[in-house]
Amino acid sequence: MDIGRLRALRELSIRKTMAAVAEALHVSPSAVSQQIALLEEEVGLRLVERRGRGVVMTPAGQQLVLRAEKILIEIESAKADIAELKSVVSGELRVAAFPSVAAAVIPKVVYDLAERHPHLIVQFEEMEPGESVAALRSWQTDVAIIDDLNMPTGALDPNIETIFLMEDVFNVMVSRDHRLSERPTVGLHELREDRWAIDTASDTYTRMLVEACQEEGFKPNIVARCKGFEVTIALIRQNYGISILPGLRASYDLEDVWVCRLVPEIRRRIFIAFRKEEKRSPALQVFLDRMAEKPPLS
User: Fold this and answer.
1) Are 37 and 9 in contact (CB under 8 A)?
2) 297: Cβ contacts below 8 Å, ≥ 6 apart
3) What is the pLDDT of residues 113-155, one digit of tens each?
4) What is the DSSP string of 151-171?
5) Is the N-terminal amide bond of 295 cis, ω within 30° of 0?
6) DSSP assignment string, 54-115
7) Which helix (H) or strand (E) holds 288?
8) Exposed/middle/buried for 149, CB within 10 Å: 0-12, 13-18, 19+?
9) What pTM was estimated for this model as a whole?
10) Cβ neighbours of residue 88 closer than 8 Å, sequence gap 6 or more
């Protein structure tokens, strides 16, 4: 059986639609459909059934996916064995991270790695934690930087290992003209009358903020839902809204913005995730070693 077709079947078991698999594998939906059809022809059994706009695995499909996962793990393990024998750190390492940690940490890390290991190519892609874990499971990335806000304990595949990276504390960000500017700390209840601008890239983050406000007895007056930090911070600068953003955001691009600690604190833990079988890979090891250097934002 063709490895590429097995990979396509495994992707389909995770992503549920031909279109989603096509996007992940950078091919057309018709190419994915053809791969699955050829695999079914090879094994002589139906492997998927259409349900609405998506598909489900037949019992034969489910069994083959389990086998395919073991095969793909062994292939990656074999690659790690070969890489371990090389004296020069080389090849490609694919890294996925969500925006706040990516902007604060990744540029310095990848620059340092390029200086220390010129034969190593680090390919970066911005992804939210859920996205990056799906990419990790389907071999679309080698490293995923995630947090416990979006990926709670127990949500990860047993084949994925995590290493703690840092804690991040959320801050209140207001304009320099805001009534709370110059304050070192702000209670969440003091923001009940304010207009809120929030970054909606993560549904979990939005839900966390709303629930925290509700626990303080009010519903936030959300007047802007932004898909990125640039618009959110522009609205804050203009004093049109306030926001609660990760502490990592307070490490750059904060001209005309006042940052104060939120009381009570809201924290998250950030982790590096990777496939267990590839831990011996020299490329992964030098990345992990650089990320472990203190302080992580240096």
Assistant:
1) no
2) 104, 105, 108, 248, 251
3) 999 999 999 999 999 898 899 999 888 999 999 998 887 666 7
4) S-TT-S-TTEEEEEEEEEEEE
5) yes
6) EEEE-HHHHHHHHHHHHHHHHHHHHHHHHHHH-SS--EEEEEEE-HHHHHHHHHHHHHHHHH
7) helix 282-292
8) buried
9) 0.73
10) 117, 119
